[in-house]
Amino acid sequence: LAPLFAEMIAIHGKDADAISEHLKRLGTDTDDRGSLMGTFDRTVMKISSLFTKLDEKFLPSLIDGEKQVLDHYDRAINASSPGNAEYPVLVKQREALRAKVADMRAGKPT
Question: Does residue 29 or residue 101 have the better pLDDT?
Fold first, then answer.
């Protein structure tokens, strides 16, 4: 599962950068480190991959974490509107993450 963990970290980093660019265009200050919880999750994933064998027993926890991220996307999309520049970006990112979670549930390789 180490490659999957690394892939998810990269996906979230890329997605956060894209949203950050939209927020900066709106004049909002952004914190490149993300939220405290996001930083904690990334740190735990990196440390776990160094010291433990990431096998299938970690997959349910990873899926649960990604479902929480999907909930955050839903709230952000509901707070936005289709006319806003960030809206299609959020929707596209959410749908890509939903597909990734579905693949994880189905046991499909990355």
Answer: 101
22-66 pLDDT, tens per residue? 778 878 777 666 554 565 566 666 656 655 666 677 788 889 989
H or E stretch including 17? helix 2-25
CA 33 distance to own-chain centroid: 14
**DSSP state, 82?**
T
pTM listed for this prediction: 0.77
Q: How far apart are CA 16 and CA 48, in angstroms?
A: 22
DSSP 85-98: THHHHHHHHHHHHH
Q: How far apart are the first and last CA of the chain?
A: 9
